[in-house]
Amino acid sequence: MSSSWTWWRLWTVPVCATLIVISVLRVTDFGRGAGGGGAGVRVDVHHHFCPPFYWEYLAEHRSGDGGLNYTHFDEKSSLRMMDRMGIAKSVLSLATPGVALPNVDQQTWRHMARAVNQYGAQVVKDHAGRFGLFASLTLPDVQGAVDEATYALDVLHADGFIVGANQILGQDSNEPLYELLNDRGSVVLIHPDLLPGSTDSSHSFEGLDVYNEMADFLLDTVHALNFMMITRVPQRFPNIKWITAHGGGFWPYSSSRFAYTIGPYLGMSPEKLTQIVSSFFYFDTAGLAGSVSIQALTDFVQPGHVLFGSDWPFVGIELLQTCISTWDSYHFSSNTRRSIYSAAAESLLSNKTYYSTKGVGSPPSDQPSLLLSH
Fold this sequence. Notes:
This protein is α/β, with parallel strands linked by helices.
């Protein structure tokens, strides 16, 4: 008996110790944000889907796609990518141009938004814990957007909404929607599209969409941010949590230019305006693959306001791997990396309010008090 016990101890103790060390190393590796499959550590707030019927809707009513290569959505492909890239959960959103095509009537917009959102909600239900949903709206049809937002929150329990950047521009009539979203404390992803007046096929060079995809998409987001600041959207609707796609376009990198122009118009210092933008808006990492871009964004944005975004499936697996590897290797603290990859998004998405707060007081706001001053 004694010799058997000695033999068991000599062999099993080292094996158990080895397994424990391997487990600790794996957890530590994931904690640092290392790319890889298995149980993911990232939350992806910028992950597109395209129902088959929406693809047919585009093919029928829109001559081009603004440089985007639309494909039918396959959640299994998304899940394979997520497992490979270490993504625990992805929030689905319909990509540009959304449902409100210019040559289609508003009633069709409403039917398409409802169908798209129900499709997305079913994907979320079928894969519990792996997907969320940013529902589509019908802007510039404001009443349709209000009705669909209410349905998406109360029935589908959507995590938030996706809105086109140029659907924000010049749209003072959006206020009824903003009032609802503010009342519910909603999350809204601002996603760019073609600039107003441009065409899908303009300015291409040897297969490259030189203006639209490479530059104007980013400019569309910048226009939206500037318009929102000029019209005091943060001050008037402080409970809406806005996520700007692709690192905010190039707003963070030209912030001083905008601040010194817009600040005096609003009667505030450039420093105060910059502080509002950097602490009120959230910025996703979709498409940011270089250390220069990463430093510019993280130097500008307040802690907790940078969120991981993949831009799947349009980025492709190779570019996505490059983006993740660059963020993995950047000199962040473990807490900052955890915030960017998951913690900030988890906090943001956990504050969903499916009921109206009117009559019972406004929900607590984590926005800085300076937003309430002029």
